[in-house]
Design a protein that fits this description.
By secondary structure, this protein is α/β, with parallel strands linked by helices. It has one domain (4-106): Sandwich (Hypothetical Protein Aq_1857, Chain: A). The chain is built from two helices and nine strands; from the N terminus they run βαββββαββββ. It has helices at residues 7-20, 69-72; strands spanning 4-5, 25-33, 37-45, 52-57, 60-65, 76-82, 85-91, 97-98, 105-106. The strands form three sheets. Strands 3-2-5-4 form a four-stranded mixed beta sheet. The two termini are 17 Å apart.
């Protein structure tokens, strides 16, 4: 499988990478956190480590470390605007439940 971006997410990341002036793509991972156990972690990727998996989605590289991959394999990252709110939305088929505040999840 893989981790992908929608066109909207890829456009948003590309714009930020251009504004930032460096970086090879987006690094997506998970960390232990929140009331459900895990939280998503997003940051710019400047390097690819030996244990990383890399995919390209709509022209943007998506980098995932080996420890995070089992929890987010198959995830599609979208960028949505709903009223005055905007941000990334994770469509993760591994997710079994999400906490009430939406900040953490459980697989």
């Amino acid at each position: 499988m893989s981790v992908t971006l929608t066109e909207a997410a890829a456009r948003h990341v590309s714009a930020f990478l251009t504004k930032r002036g460096k970086g090879i793509g987006l690094r997506l991972g998970v960390k232990t956190s929140g009331c459900s156990g895990m939280a998503y972690k997003l940051e710019f990727a400047d390097v690819v480590n030996e244990d990383d998996q890399v995919w390209e989605s709509h022209g943007v590289k998506v980098v995932v470390d080996a420890k995070s991959l089992p929890y987010i394999d198959g995830t599609e990252l979208d960028y949505v605007k709903e009223g005055l709110q905007e941000g990334f939305k994770y469509n993760n088929p591994q997710e079994k439940e999400r906490c009430g505040c939406g900040k953490s999840f459980h697989v």
